[in-house]
């Protein structure tokens, strides 16, 4: 069984979806731990209720980014993490950290990458007048929100939408489906990072997978 470590900073809705999918037998892996850089992250409750060990690594207690990342890498090594899942982990990671876990670390981002790396994605999509919006799961590489995309889900933006309504639809309709699917592919060994590209069941993804590629269990 592969060992998953999920890193969070906040609410943990993606974490909860992963927990439910794993419990239902759709992700063949075990949770080694959930680590938060914030003691008050409400997502920690989901982990505790599921009986998953939790750890808090408060970034403010480290002198700089490198020291925090070194401590985090140490915990991931000690936990023997096979797969590192960034689920609303709001930290910019150093190159050294990313290189150590490259190919084993996924992130979910609330935009149709390569659009809107960084923060405030829903507002930026509205201001640009985008007809579509969504979310993307990608491998983490040193450039922020720029690693090879694995799966992306999209929907149409309505005239009545505001940033809050977009955020809710991105979460409900897209994130909570595509992340468990991507983590399941990783856990089964079907998804790999090879020569800088995402490879699913031996096929290089020239375009990310879409909602149409979700298996029944993840729809
Ligand atoms: C999600 O929308 C996720 O895509 C986003 O934070 C939210 C976390 O929600 N991540 C990023 O913006 C990463 N740059 P959650 O804690 O309820 O899963």
Question: What this model shows, in words?
Answer:
This protein is α/β, with parallel strands linked by helices and 219 residues long. The protein has a single domain (2-218), classed as Rossmann fold (3-Layer(aba) Sandwich). The chain is 32% helix and 24% strand. The protein is built from 6 helices and 10 strands. The chain has a 7-stranded mixed beta sheet with strand order 3-2-1-4-5-6-7, covered by helices on one side. Helix 1 packs parallel to helix 6. The longest helix is centred in the last third of the chain and has 25 residues, at 163-187. The chain is globular and about 45 Å long. The mean pLDDT is 98. Glycinamide ribonucleotide (GAR) binds at residues 8, 10-14, 43, 87-88, 108-110, 135, 171, 175.
Keywords for this entry:
219 residues; alpha/beta; Rossmann fold; seven-stranded mixed beta sheet; 6 helices
